[in-house]
Amino acid sequence: MPGKVILGAQWGDEGKGKFIDIFAGKADLVVRSQGGNNAGHTVVVGEETYKLQLIPSGILYPNCVNVIGPGVVVDPRAILKEIDGLAEKGVSTEKLYIDARCHCILPWHLELDALSEKARGGDDIGTTKKGIGPTYMDKAERIGVRMHDFVGERFEEAMREACARKNKVISGVYGGELIDIQAVLDEYRGYAERLRPFVRDTSVITYDAVKSGKEVLFEGAQGTLLDLDMGTYPYVTSSHPVSGGCCIGSGVGPTAIDSVIGICKSYTTRVGKGPFPTELFDETGDYIRGAGGEFGTVTGRPRRTGWFDAVIARYAVRVNGLTDLVINKIDPLRGLPTLKVCVGYRFKGETLTEFPADFADLAHCEPIYEEFEGFSEDITACRTWDELPAAVRHYIQELERIVGCPITMLGVGPARDQVMTIK
Ligand code: GDP
Ligand code: IMO
Ligand code: MG
Known about the structure:
single chain, 423 residues, alpha/beta, Adenylosuccinate Synthetase, Chain A, domain 1, Adenylosuccinate Synthetase, subunit A, domain 2, Adenylosuccinate Synthetase, Chain A, domain 3, 3 domains, ten-stranded mixed beta sheet, four-stranded mixed beta sheet, 13 helices, 33% helix, binds guanosine-5'-diphosphate, binds 6-O-phosphoryl inosine monophosphate, binds magnesium ion
């Protein structure tokens, strides 16, 4: 079975884009199965930096088929902007397919994301305001506009119906301004025309690739702790970034998958609100943020930063069935005299080694740390295990021991070649 899942094992932004791009060099098909343009996946090739939001990170290889699976929510305006941006850089989207079942993110979803966040006052989620939650809400309520409607004959009827329904919520619940459907139709009709050639039943394309033994990559977006069920609810996204979500969201069964690779950074970051036990509020946190360039790809927000949390990593191993763990972004830790790893939490006088289900408990968990020697060498040119300083090798070996999953690759810089395979 040729299917590989690559997913985020923390709170997103682990560097999934870089690893998908690397693996895509040998892949036949890359499929996204959840989320939308709340994702921001950075791929650095030579002097060029690509920030992909909806389009799979395999797009930079002309022979790779790129699929946006049925579980993804697609903003027509945003995806066309991304397609145009890639075309300007000479990247073809000829082998890009969007599933007919994808739900569309429409202007009322963007409006409702902003209104609902505002209405929560100081208790907002800190969403990316891309309309993700409201679109998945409509999907669950069975009133959404799917791609086959959007590019098909029902375009106007479906759009008018959805807008009328949502205008009642916008004005009745939030006292917001009504959306002018005629203006939306005038703008979006052109988007529908342009997107029509991309729309397919992609579950057939993905299945055929799997069945004929082709190399298929399932590209995770967000991260395990942002999963709607398994994450730090309610400070999560509205889809399923865990490995199980790949099957539902791409329309193929679990037998299509034979490895699940979880990407972690050598420290932890989070954007948006919610509990974060190892968060650093001191100059060490500022140092890591600066060294790692931890500012949101989508929103530009500074990312909250903290030490590596092995409780989270062990949880990610368990709920995703990880076969491999990748430790990315080790280089930003350079210059710190001591590296700390959270091995458990102290909660109400007890030691917890499992991640709690209730985020309110997590907010009261105090990290228990093990400490390791830091390193001062520049490791960005290292390409083999033996080239790494002894302190880095020791840190990685200890992480593997504490987390209990084989660490098979390391990342030492943003570029495609700044990685090493260690097993
Ligand atoms: P994704 O959402 O998981 O694809 O990750 P993002 O692209 O949002 O964030 C990762 C950031 O770290 C990007 O700016 C990458 O260019 C950068 N990056 C990736 N790997 C490394 C690495 O090993 N070292 C450093 N210093 N930066 C990296
Ligand atoms: P990638 O794929 C990090 C976070 C938001 C917010 C919460 C809900 O680049 O790793 P949403 O707009 O999805 O309703 O916001 O989820 N979030 C991410 N954080 N990386 C991401 O994607 C994220 N996508 C959503 O910051 O806390
Ligand atoms: Mg990102």
